[in-house]
Amino acid sequence: MNYLDWIAKWSSYTPYKKAVYCLDTKRSFSYMELHENSLKIGNYLINRFQLKRGERLAVIAEHSPEYLMLFIATQRLGIILVPLNYRYTSQEIGYCIDDVSPSLILGDDLKFKTKIPEQKNKIQAQFMSFKSFFEKAEKADTDYPNLDFKIDTEQPIFIFYTSGTTGKPKGVIYTNRMMFWNSLNTAVQLEITSVDHTINALPPFHTSGWNVLLLPMLHRGARVDFISKFQPGKILSYIQEQPISLFLAVPTMLRMMVKSKVFSKFKPKKLNYFIVGGENLSCKLIDIWAKKGILMSQGYGLTEAGPSITSLHRHEALWKKGSIGKPNFYVDVKILNHKNEEVNNNQAGELCIKGNIVTPGYWNNSACTLQKIKDEWLHTGDIVCRDADGFLFMIGRKNNIYISGGENIHPSEIENILYQIDGIEEAAVVGVEDENWGETGVAFVVLQNQKLKVKDIRSYLRKHLASYKVPREIIIMEKLPKSGLGKINKNELKVGFKKINNDKKNFL
């Protein structure tokens, strides 16, 4: 039995303990059932599809216990699981399929089949419905005939495609080594034990849906429940009714939960805290949840590393509001300026990471690998600063910084001020081309209070920011475009703004 086969281990130690439950299907599985069903799935993959170590299996499906069992089987066999983003267009999914060349594609149902490119005859992969696959796999044997069942530490287990907001999607290779050390980091920082219980509401096509809580929780013999789609009222009710001790969310989810009718009477029984990442968390939102007695364990992660890289302990959530915490236990970090020199406290620089949680590289993209990973250090492209107490604060993406009149401007600094304004629900700032200044800022906001006017927002910004940092335009929107994980899609905002401006020029 391999020490990386955590499900087999817990099947031996606590075979009848409930490991996972699905709110959608009402099905639950003990650790022994997870183990045995995964054996059947593995056997079916070998006998029906003749998949071999290193081959890719792409999936277009919502998260579920069945998806988890498929991963357990592929990990054991050395097959690389490729969770595809079902929110991508057919063209984007087609690009990923061409890039990764899967031997088998599993699709959730007919609507996901439509996302497979029309040129199906050009795809050299077998295709099968997700539901049919599991129905047939359940009837398979549990024995692995003549199979050397060994999990290799360096074997890739996932390829995660990034959102592609800065170009075409890139496939990030994720290995057993990364999974193991990420799990240690997570368990140490979040103090996870076998009595913990969570509900997973994040999608499977992002590393967070697997590696922030799901796999680290199962490593510790804890329990994970699934819901395929995030529903704020339903999640709040479930956390209140069940002994949920931890919950992972992105800020967008937390804002939606606050707006739910259930929130006013929300009193969880056992919830220790929320784990939050993905984008900046406003101090206002931290305070709203703190009044409910719920603290935030903020953190920072990347698809290319961990993703558990830094953590802010929940007891420091109010003392160090806005901080992403300190580096996790088994992570080395350094902060470099544009000359590749380490910066002093309270100086901004690019965060660089080293350790066993760093990806070996990008699939079929050695040029990008060499550009991002230098002498074993991953250059994240994220700008941070460290205060005198050693806490890190996110300033923004290196490629999100814009230069106006020779001054570097970080959008997150302006966004943090916008979130202080009573009546602003969401905010995003991007840099756009400007004939006079080179670039200038545009702020996009969603309002809670419709009485709030642009002139009021601008007046508040002028009181709290240098004049050159105040965005040239402030645009009120009904909603902001989101990525599959619920993060604000700034690239889409820039493209939309550029199109509107071009249309105005053409009209005039």
From TrEMBL:
Keywords: Ligase. GO terms for biological process: fatty acid metabolic process. InterPro entries: AMP-bd_C, AMP-bd_C_sf, AMP-binding_CS, AMP-dep_synth/lig_dom, ANL_N_sf. SUPFAM superfamilies: Acetyl-CoA synthetase-like. The keyword Ligase applies. This is Fatty-acyl-CoA synthase. Residues 413-487 form the AMP-binding enzyme C-terminal domain. The keyword Ligase applies. GO terms for molecular function: medium-chain fatty acid-CoA ligase activity. Residues 12-363 form the AMP-dependent synthetase/ligase domain. Belongs to the ATP-dependent AMP-binding enzyme family. It comes from Psychroflexus sediminis.
